Every structure is written in structure tokens, then in C-alpha cells.
Amino acid sequence: MNSRLFPVTVLVLVTAFLIGPFFIIVAASLSEGETLAFPPQGLSLKWVAKVFEVESFRESFAMSMLLAIGGTAAALALGIPASYALSRYRLPFGETVRTVVSLPIIVPGIIVGLALLRYLVVPFGFNITLALFLAHTALVLPYAVRVVSASLNNLRSDIEEAAVLLGSSRAGAFFRVVMPNIRSGILAAFILGFVTSFNQVPVSLFLSGPGVRTLPIDMLSYMEVTYDPSVAALSALLAFMSIGIVFLAERFLGFSRYV
Amino acid sequence: MFHNRAEALALALPAAVFAAVVFLAPVVILLAEGFRNADGWSVSAYSGFLSDPLNRTVFLRTLRLGAAVTVVAAVIGYAAAFAIVNLPPKGKGRMIGLVVLPLMISPVARTYAWIVILGRTGIVNQALTSVGLTDEPVRFLFTETAVFVGLLQLFLPLMILALISALENMPKDAIPAARVLGANWFQVFWKVILPLTREGLVIGGTLVFTGSLTAYITPAILGGSKVLMLETLLYQRVTVANDFVSASVIAFILIVMSFAANLLLKRLATARSKR
Amino acid sequence: MSDPAFLSLEKLTLAYGDTVAVKDLDLSIRKGELVAFLGPSGCGKTTTMRSIAGLLKPQSGRISLDGADITRVAANRRSVGLVFQSYALFPHLTVFENVAFGLRLKGLSGAELESRVGTGLKSVGLTSFADRKPAELSGGQQQRVALARSMVMEPKVLLLDEPLSNLDARLRLEMRTELQRVQRETGVTMIFVTHDQGEALSLADRIVVMLNGAIEQIGTPEEIYNRPASAFVADFVGFENIFAVENGKLRAGNGPIELPEPLPQDAAGLAWRPRMVTLGSGPFQGTVRGASFSGSTREYLLDTPLGALKAEVDAAVPAHAAGTTLAFDLPVEKAAKLERFN
Lengths: 259, 275, 342
What we know:
Oligomer: heterotrimer
Mean pLDDT of chain C: 90
CATH superfamily of the largest domain in chain A: MetI-like
Distance between the termini of chain C: 30 Å
Number of domains of chain A: 2
Number of helices of chain A: 11
Radius of gyration of chain C: 24 Å
Structural class of chain C: alpha+beta
Helix content of chain A: over 70%
Order of helices and strands of chain A: HHHHHHHHHHH
CATH class of the largest domain in chain A: Mainly Alpha
Distance between the termini of chain A: 33 Å
Order of helices and strands of chain C: EEEHEEEHHHEHEHEEHHEEEEEEEE
Number of helices of chain C: 8
Low-confidence stretches of chain C: none
Strand order of the largest sheet of chain C: 6-7-8-3-9-10
């Protein structure tokens, strides 16, 4: 097909559709005016500044960060040994374990949040923050296992046997020989888990309370009350943060290999 | 060296137990609640749920929008994927990056933009009134159209990526061969491209469909309580009416649909690797 | 020769974006001819073939087929067949359905379709493979399916992209015979593209040698083989000893060399095949640098005032050791006269 017009038009339109809204948000957040509008009336950074002033945003940002980092770390702590077991050993119920661990991807998050609220938090007075933490860990676990498994499957197991024959203990072999080689896989899993947890909404919907909120949930409730551009500014900032993280990951890790 | 079962279990068990206790058990109990009433096990909750016309509307609407988004995503996806696959390597990489980019941004942010675009003072209304097509701003927000557009934007990248992968795996000369044998472009698509990319289409379609069915943020922001979908209905029933039984029913429906889709994907993946 | 041209290309210029691949090409081909486009990769032969098929729109120029201007006609409306180098069989269809593909698009079905496809499969000897899928066939069989698929459409011109390159020696001979037979039986005008001079020489009625987007020489295999028009063509068909002519002398690395006989006035260069070099007597001296034995002949690499020369002698003649100095001659009457030196 020699005509370039059709494919080019399609690509331009699709790109505008997918990326356009992002630019609109950035532009709207730089508005001088009091309401959310595009094109922005005047240019000002005041709404961006306001984002940092709103106390609940600061608190929920910290909460989201904590959950993302902590939850992903916990997911890796559970997931790395599990991946190792699944890829190196012929486990009796290997497939079952893999399925159970991967379930959180299949079950919609909102159900998990609700279930935890109803059977852990309410009856036992379980700390909400802790419940959130457990929920986010469960959410990230499948990604951790999948990505680390991919790394391990690419690494031959005979190097561990060689290490043991040279006098290393099993655990020593793992830390000296396996870890360094799957390090970038673990880092990729961490970044993927972090982004997934940070942007997650449904899981956290039911697990919020006074002073306990993730940032996206906070943004949602803020939006119900006011329509000012600060949410736009916050959205834009978060978007840049996500893009920045993934961009750096791709640059230094060749991230896309693991996903 | 890797034959010690006890070792293996010790390594795998923490994750499995964690998933089972923190995740599996509560969810199963929640689902069980939907199958019990005062007299024991029954499906009265389900018949009760489905007899309410509002619930039926929400259920059908969710399926309908999911199907609509999937079909439109497939059509646009094929056009975009085909255009991308024929780009020179550098351009192709950049376009794929642009397609993947939105996936990294929070769905809240991505959906929020539509408020700016579709609101009463938004771009679309501004354009319409300035051209003179309407006197008053048209209400786009809190309509099925708004939710449709929001979901489409959210999931289109997944379809495009799946189709790019499928198109790259197609034998390159099949299209010019069909052309020289007399096929017009519609026939080329229908008789050659579609059958040879069917797997990618199913993968993309499943991801888009399940994503749309189990979406919360987009229906919440763009549909509100006027256009309820299954997950926003669930939220509403719990927070407004403490109705955990309905919640359980909805949860079961969502899980079944999600499971079915995942099973289909797994079946396809193993079929492909057997070739 | 005043046969009307069946397929003619007039001042054809073909480009990919900004890169011009073929410039101002003129060519006419008679009905029923078997023509080879011969040249190194990048010379424009495949590009020209694809434009005849309609897969590339010309930047300027005209393509006419059987009296009609088809320059702007879409690829799916030309009566042209193309057998791809990769065969391009549809992997999701059986052999039967592959061959039937174009016929179905024309609206054929039922008994007529079955009979046309059956005849097509029979003509390439693959009747019993009708229900197999392409993946179950060998390379040679796949190619025959591709051939049948194009031939059942009864095209006015059949194009083949490197038909023999992917085949081993035995299959190559079989396929070559097959193509000649098909051409003889159906009389279809056939054009094939190749980088292998042996293929071109053995199959074609006429050879079009191309270089850098232009035609170097058109001729019968004998003409191309024995009377190359330029240094490039001479080199391509195996003349190893090629020299430019300046002021009646041969231009060589160390300076112009005068030959005992006068050189033709209009020659831009002269070329000798290794076996045309007289070894053992002559006005020049050369040192044997290396020798190789190839069954019926022996080839020598000589260091000479003219540079390195290759000479070929019958194997019966006793071998000359490396380092031996020998007399040799380049008889002008045995040389090929080159019109151009490039």
C-alpha cells in the first residue's frame, strides 16, 4: 500500500486520543483561574503549589508511598523464595502454588478490600493500615512471582551446583551466585509492583478511615467536593512521577524484557 | 541438588499460606455469604438480586459497555497496529512507547482529563457552541457515552499491543500475495489478516473485556450514580445500605467472568506454545 | 524484430521515499518470452518486478501490458502472477484452499473450482497433498504449491522472485526443468529475478543485466556470456581478466602495457576468460603464485606486469609449481570487446 495518508491519520488520531488527555490535564493544572477549564485562563503555578499545601494530600501521599514500598518489599520477600522453589524444584503441588499465588490478579481488587474489611477489620478490630498493607502485598505478590520467575528461568541452575561443589553452602550459593544474576529482574519486579500499588484504587476503597487513605482515594473524595484544578495538578505530578520511574527503569534495566 | 521436597515447600509455603489466609479465605467466605440465607444454603440471594430491575439494568449495561468497548478497541486497534508494524524501526519503537505510556499513568489521572474535555464548560462543548451546533452545553458527563470513552482510552493500548505482537508473527508476504491473487483490502483483512492474527485478537479482547467489566474508577468518575456499573453498584450497596448479600452476589459474578477470561487466555497460551 | 511488445516499461522511475531505486528504465518483452533480471543485490531487479506486479507505484513512467496502460491499476486487478521467494503460502489454509484462493475471489465455486484446482495441483504433481497444510510440506513442495496458486489464475505475466536460490543442487535442477516445462506448455510470459548468472544462463530466452537501477545489457544467454558489453557484466559472468583500454594500450596497475597486435579502435576495455589466456608461450612473463585443481582443469594465479591474472589449463598438462616463471599471451582475437568500462 503506497498511500501513506491513511496509516498516518490513524496514528495521529490514536496518539491524540491516548496522550491528548494527559496534556490537557497538565495545561489545566497551570491555569490562573479558579475552576477546572481548558484552555487554561492564564498561566500560574499556584495550583501546583496548592497540592503541596493540602494536608490530606501530604498524608495520603505518604501512606501510598509507604504501602507501595512496604507492600512491594513484603511481596518480594515472599515471592523470591517462592519463585526459586517453583523454578528450581519439581514441587508436588507446584502448579497449585503458582495458581494460588497468582489469584490476586484474577480477582477484582474491590472484592479483596471488602472481604478484608468484613472479616478481618470489623470483627477483630484489626488495624486498618495493617489490613491495607496486607491487601497491597497480596496485590503485588503475583507480579513479583511472575517477574522473578522469568529471571530465574533464564538463569541456568548448573552454576549453583558448581558453586556448591566448590565448597559453598546452599544458602551461600543463592546469595553469591543467583542473586547477583537476578538483581535486575528483582529491581524490575520492584518497580512494577511499586507502580501497580501506588496507582491502585479498588483494593483501597473499603479500607480507608480517618487519617488512613491512599492518595488516589483521597483524590477521589476531594473531587466529590471541589472541582478546582489542584486535582489536575496532582494528577499531572503523579503521571510525571510514574513516567519518570518507568523511563529510568527502561534506561538502566531494559525493563521491557521482564514485563 | 533440587530434590529435597521439604526445602522446596519451606520456600514456597510462606507465599502460598499468605495468599491463602489473607486473600483466598476472606474472599471465599464473602462468596459463601451469597449462597446462604436464614435456612442454610440457597441461591435465593441471586434470584432476589436479579429480580430487581435496577440490578438487571446495571448487569446488562456492564456487559453491553464491555462488549462495545472491546469491539471498537478491536477495530481501532487493528488500524493502529497495522500502521505501527509498517513503520521503520525507530519510529516503530517510539510509537510503541507512546502506546505503552498511558498504561503507566494512574487511572484516576487518565479518567480525570475527560471531566475537562466533556464537562459543561469543557472543550467539546466549547467547540460545539462556538461552531453553532448547540445553544446550550450538552451533557456528556454521567452518561454511558462518557463511561464508554473513558474505558476505551484506558484499555485501547492493551489491544494495540496484543495486535502488534500478532501482526509481527504473521508471514510477511502473505498480504502482497493475497493482493496479487486479486483480493481487495477488505478481503485481505477478512481472509488473511484476521485468521492469522486471531490469537492476538482474543488475547487483546479478553484483557479489554475483563478490564471493562471490573472497572471502578472510570465508571465512578464519569458515570457517578447515574450510570452504575457492577463495581460502582457494589460500592454503593455496601456504603449506603450495608447490603453485603448483594455485594457477595456481584462479587461472584465478577469473579466468574474474570476467571472464565483467564482460563481462556491460559488455554490459548498453551495451545500456542505447543505448535 | 517487430513483434509488438507484450509488456513494456517506458522511462520507469521507482523510488522508496527519497531513495531512487530505478531510473528511467526502458524495456520491452515479447509474449511468451522467458526473461531473467540478473544483477547484484540493490541493483533494482526486485523493485522493477514488484512494480510490474503493482506492489510499488512508479514515481514516473509507464507500464503497459497487452496493449493496456496498467501503471495506475491496483495490484489486485492486474493479470499478473507472483511467486514470492518465501512462497508466501497461507499457513491457515490447506494446499487446496491455497491454490483455490484467487479463484474463489473471482467467484468460482463448486465443480468448476474443484476441477481448476485439481488441474493445477496435477500439473505440479501434488494432487495427493491437497488436504495438507503448508507446514507439513517440504520447501520444494511449498514452492510448487505457490507456482500452482499463481498459474491457475492464468496470468498474462508470471513473475518469480529468486525461484532457485533457496534450493539445493538437485532440487534446483528439478525446479528449473519444471519451470521450463510450464512455460513451454502454457506459453505464459515469464520473468524471474536472480543474482545467480548460472540460473539466468540456463533458463532464460533473454537476460536483462542490471546495476544501480539501470540496465547494463540485454541479450540472449550466448550474447551475455560471450560478448559482455561492460566491465561489470564481464565480471559478473566470470571473465577474470578485465582491462581498460587507453590510447591503444591496456591499462594495468604498473602502467600501460602494449600488446603485440593492434587493439580494436572502439573498445573501451578487453576481457579474457581464464582459459583464453595462452600459457607457456608468448611475449609476457609471469610468476605462478598459486594453483588449484578442479578435476578436468587446473587454474593458475599469476603475478604479472599487468597485475594478477588467472589462467586455466587442461588438467592433463603437467602442473607448474609455485614460483615458476612462465611465458603467457593475451591474444586479442580471443578477447571480449567491452563497450563500456565501469
